[in-house]
Write a structure and sequence with these properties.
Immunoglobulin-like, about 40% strand, Galactose-bd-like_sf, Ig domain-containing protein, 22 strands, single chain, 2 domains, mainly beta, six-stranded mixed sheet, Jelly Rolls, about 325 residues, seven-stranded mixed sheet
Length: about 325
């Protein structure tokens, strides 16, 4: 090998080595100044630890690596992908429920509890009637829209399901009526409409069977001055006497609505206008206490509410919006 060739080879190898050294130095420094090194990640935080999202909307979370100024990849995940989806911190609710959204970098993870709820203004009454602005509702009969309006404040839903919660008629003394117009809240939703049969007295009621379990109504006992029973009724018959019957599983109370006493001689508590329009009846729990119905212990397999209608065959019995509740102060 000639001297000139060896010299050229050494020069070429030297140039390659120099290029390789310069390339490696640039990758490690990230193009920064010599000696600049990113600090190590010590943790990760979210801007929120809990979040409520309305179904049909969206929300977002922001994750930050610690200490300040550190950058790095963040992986997002959800504990229940059927409730919500998450990508790059953007949350898309899928159904009502709860899920934890996690942001992860390496061995560091932080989470946010996300609750997905129904739109509170969807399918509800607006404005909300005063009778639905109370608290602690024990609902016996109520349309779906009104129920949705107070659902978060319902302690017991005792509406009929034809399984453990049933509506019954005594010995076929009442027949199915023909609802006309709107319900008590002015909605095109149903209510209980019945017609008095051929006998002098007719009756029906709501029973909650043992399969439902116990009903704890002791708040009504502890604070009777704050609680009321509500029912809406309408009638065009001035002579019909209605008897409302309440039971706590131990005693029974009767509240008569009409111009005179009922068939057992119980004097009327009051009456309502008989003009074929809905009328509101509100009975304080203190009145039931006076008759020995206290709700001072959990009840089961009980006729939670019943009513009698005395009068003429063919008279109508229309009942809606039946519940116990704590009235708004």
């Amino acid at each position: 090998m000639s001297t000139n060739f060896r010299s050229a080879l050494f020069v070429l190898l030297g140039l390659i080595g120099t290029s390789f050294f310069v390339s490696c130095s640039s990758s490690e420094s990230g193009g920064g100044q010599e000696g600049d090194v990113d600090p190590e990640v010590t943790g990760i935080v979210l801007d929120q630890t809990s979040l409520t999202v309305v179904l049909g909307t969206s929300a977002s979370l922001k994750a930050t690596l610690q200490p300040e100024g550190v950058t790095g990849d963040i992986t997002w995940s959800t504990s229940d992908p059927t409730v919500l989806a998450v990508a790059d911190g953007d949350i898309q609710p899928l159904k009502v429920g709860e899920a934890n959204v996690a942001a992860t970098h390496g061995t560091f993870t932080t989470t946010c509890k996300v609750t997905v709820i129904e739109d509170p203004t969807s399918g509800t009454l607006d404005p909300v009637p005063e009778v639905l602005q109370g608290e602690d509702y024990y609902v016996i009969s109520l349309d779906e829209t009104a129920f949705a309006t107070i659902e978060s404040k319902v302690t017991y839903d005792l509406r009929t399901d034809d399984v453990d919660k049933n509506f019954y008629i005594w010995e076929n003394t009442l027949l199915a009526g023909q609802p006309s117009g709107n319900n008590y809240f002015g909605l095109e939703e149903g209510w209980m409409s019945l017609v008095v049969g051929s006998v002098g007295w007719s009756g029906a009621g709501y029973n909650v069977g043992s399969g439902f379990g116990s009903i704890d109504m002791t708040p009504l006992y502890n604070n009777p001055e704050e609680y009321y029973f509500h029912v809406a009724m309408k009638s065009a018959s001035a002579s019909t006497v209605y008897t409302l019957i309440f039971s706590d599983g131990i005693a029974e109370a009767k509240v008569v609505m009409g111009a005179g006493p009922d068939g057992d001689g119980v004097a009327p508590y009051g009456d309502f206008e008989r003009n074929g329009e809905w009328q509101e009846i509100s009975i304080p729990l203190t009145h039931l206490h006076e008759q020995g119905v206290f709700y001072n212990q959990a009840v089961s397999n009980v006729n939670i509410f019943a009513f009698l209608a005395g009068g003429n065959s063919g008279d109508t019995v229309d009942v809606d919006a039946v519940f116990f509740y704590k009235k708004k102060k």
